[in-house]
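Appendix B. Raw example, untouched.
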Amino acid sequence: MTGEVFANDPLLLSEVLRCYQPHCRYLRELTVEARGERATATGTFEIAESCYIDATGHLNSVEVNICYNQMLYQTIAVLVRHRVGPLFGGWTMDDYWRRQLPGILITRLDSEYRRPIDPRRFYGEFVLAGSQERISSTDGAPFTSLDTSFRCWDDAGGRCAGTVRLAIVDVAQPLGAVR
């Protein structure tokens, strides 16, 4: 089964990354392939200099998290714009902009680093594997749990990977503890 492929959309990417300081807009392009609820996005990154620390000579975990977020946000924006999938196909772009920062939360992030990655140019992959409707054990508020993963690599064999669980909460609800 082949999916729908959405080429890089520079205008949408510019809008999505507007919430970042200009020197922290690391994602240069992203292509998204969607098959039902599953989406895989592949992108290119460039980090001329770290946004918070002197040069270490390698990509570090803080910047990997920023890169993950940028792939996540752009992938969801593409799915919403093209009305793809059971979850994001029902959102409008206004829904997306309202939820982008306050309503999409990382609840668990596990990552491992195998070989140093040159931050000046590297690649990343984001995978949205599935979602579940859940109820918060703290306040009974409904939320959507997303299972995602990522990996990054460079041309010299540098690599890292991880898994991330997300919660999409109704921004009108108190955030509380999400499991």
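End of appendix B.
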